[in-house]
Amino acid sequence: MESNIVAIAIDSTGLKRFGRDEWHQEKHKVDGKLSWMKAHFVVRMDHIIEAAVMTGKDVMDDQVVGTLCEQITADIGHVTADKMYDTNAVFQTLDSHSPNAEIIIPPKDYTFADNRHHSKRMSNLIECSAAGIMNWQKRRHYGRRNVSETAMQRYKK
């Protein structure tokens, strides 16, 4: 593994579980309960998966960031993720792992400035409010997150 990773993107995707019940439902044309798992990935900008975790469908994205960070042994310079990761706990976990990293996660809708927010989260919120979401995304290179989306699609097909 590299000693210093320039940038990563964090994301998750749902995966359909197949098994004996799938075959039975198809053969006899009966409805069944769908079963899903979630795959959570940390993807480097060169499309290499740096960390991965499989969870049940009910696990929220922000709950696995600590487990993902445990798999990364290098310092990170830039982290992007979608709004589902906009929590103080995620910012704290990422900041503890890589204190010098830029954490680029857009604020959830209806999030207001509050001194209880992590300082990097508060910075994102203020910048988004001042510059507008599109300008903020462009300035902060939020488009790098597309790498994770591309990686997800590659492995799902």
Automatic annotation (TrEMBL):
<dbReference type="Pfam" id="PF01609">
    <property type="entry name" value="DDE_Tnp_1"/>
</dbReference>
<dbReference type="InterPro" id="IPR002559">
    <property type="entry name" value="Transposase_11"/>
</dbReference>
<dbReference type="InterPro" id="IPR053172">
    <property type="entry name" value="Tn903_transposase"/>
</dbReference>
<feature type="domain" description="Transposase IS4-like">
    <location>
        <begin position="6"/>
        <end position="154"/>
    </location>
</feature>
<protein>
    <recommendedName>
        <fullName>Transposase IS4-like domain-containing protein</fullName>
    </recommendedName>
</protein>
